[in-house]
Amino acid sequence: MAGCANVFSAQLTRYQQWPEQTAGALYWIQPDAAQQNNLQFQTFSDAVRAALGPTGLVEASSASQARFVVHVEYGAERSREWRQQMVDPYFYPGFVGPGFAYRQPWGGWGYGPVVESVPVIVTRLRLSVQIDDRSQRGKEVYRASAETIGPEGRLGAAMPYLARAAFDRFPGMNGQVIEIRYPLPR
Fold it and tell me: What number of CA atoms fall less than 13 Å from residue 80's CA on the CB side?
């Protein structure tokens, strides 16, 4: 996952107009057409259910009983970023000896470590949760997006942490963007 090997970190962005006195209110996770009978969606919904538990909401036994309707979206997008890295001066063209002195490609001398920019493929793992309140004619009352950078194909491993992040200190402040960090089991 993102950051150090023993810490999961994610960026959480949330918007909310959460109503008062909702402890014990019922919710229903509503799949869209593409998520019907989808095993991945069912698994990721379980992570969202686990994260919703501490909020005081209770899962309804049917959609018609629920006050709150929860929509879940997730994904993994690959992109290229440029990162700076140190270059071993012994292998840098123009290196002249200890002390990090090297010959600049345009002439002259440079001192200190050599840094170069290299392209890196990163995978952004994302979970978005939207909650609508049926008692307010379906008004959106909560929207959260948790995102981390991780290895390709690891969305399943990140999902419990992304779901937990989406409801961290729920409902939080409106328009809040925070960095979430959780220790990973060793």
Answer: 3
